[in-house]
Amino acid sequence: MYPRTDPATRRPERLPRGAFLMGPGSMTDNTTATTAALGALQDPLDALGVHWRMYAPADLELGFGKARVLLGDCVERMRELPDGSADVVLVDPPYSSGATREAGKTGYSKTMTRSTDGDRARWFGSDSLSTDGFAFLLRACALEWFRILKPGGHALIFIDWRMLPAAMAAVESADLRKSGVLIWNKTYFGMGKYYRNQYECIMHFTKGVGCDPQRRDIGNVLSHKPLRTRNGAIHPTEKPVPLLRDLLSVVCPPGGLVVDCFAGSGSTGEAVLRSVPGARVVLIERDQQYHVKASLRLAGVMRDLYGDRRTQEVDGPANDDGGPGADGPGAGAVGVADDLDEVA
User: Fold this and answer.
1) How far apart are CA 94 and CA 106, in angstroms?
2) Which of 8, 73, 84, 1 lies closest to 341, judged by CA?
3) How far apart are CA 83 and CA 81, in angstroms?
4) Cα(271)–Cα(298) distance, rounded to whole angstroms?
5) Structural contact between residues 317 and 1, judged by C-beta atoms closer than 8 angstroms
6) pLDDT by residue (tens digit) across 150-199?
7) What does the pLDDT look like over 32-47, one tens digit per residue?
8) What is the CA radius of gyration of the chain?
9) Domains of the chain as residue ranges with CATH
10) Which of 224, 231, 236 is nearest to 293 (CA)?
11) Pick from 55, 233, 281, 339: CA 20 to 30 A from residue 100's CA?
12) Cα distances (angstroms) measured from residue 206 to each of 50, 96, 170
């Protein structure tokens, strides 16, 4: 849904209308990814009654731009986002959880391997990188985070103690400023040889001097129970929405834009839509299975918040008193090629 970037200028270039899809509507691009995404999403999205549009290859827009779910490589797709457009980057990269030695990080039969679909052989992409490989990936991402963040914008990156030193150095090398490390207290014990594991780290960086916080009553130790497949997790490393809401409540202004380039199940998107007034979110996911799951999850959230809004703008929760979200001036359908040149 974003125009591709001209390599010479690094600026978006407009594509012809024929390169895009509008939903519900006829398919004008027959790429494999587009066909598969439409097949999985069109009927469920129509049934939910939310406004949606899809652009080749398989980029979904929900609620007139409130949420966008892009399919593809995290670095490549971020290159299409405009400079200085995001207020917050909130990500949970694949940091080879459960391994203390390099051999364990690159092995496909790690002791913590589990699957949300019952297939123990299937984990998720890039979670078997060595420390060097992970640092390379993270720095490439951090360079894009620096570019897309507004001055004073915030980056929050989940990590565990094994990869924390390499990850801090990789992100700092992209000229983002260290602002501290937060602790996610999972409230109960995990595995551990001597002292049982009970926490994960969250790195906090800013682009230059960080913008003032939205609130000052959140500490740097946040206690929330983790999700598991038995209690509703969609992705094997999914983070709980209440935890993400706490993080966003400090650094994301009303109407802000949040980017998550490791979207997984879309929990960041749900946290943004449910907790930050007027905020928008861009998710990027390379695994088509989770791209579909994240898309449907956010569509369900849009339905919960705004009701049936297939042809009306969604400025606030649905209501019947003429307030935000109600039909009124400015409400109406949006053309296929509208709002393609910028995010903010």
Assistant:
1) 12
2) 1
3) 7
4) 10
5) no
6) 999 999 999 999 999 999 999 999 999 999 999 999 998 888 889 999 99
7) 777 778 788 888 998 8
8) 20
9) 1-67+293-344 (no CATH), 73-285 (3.40.50.150)
10) 236
11) 233
12) 35, 25, 14
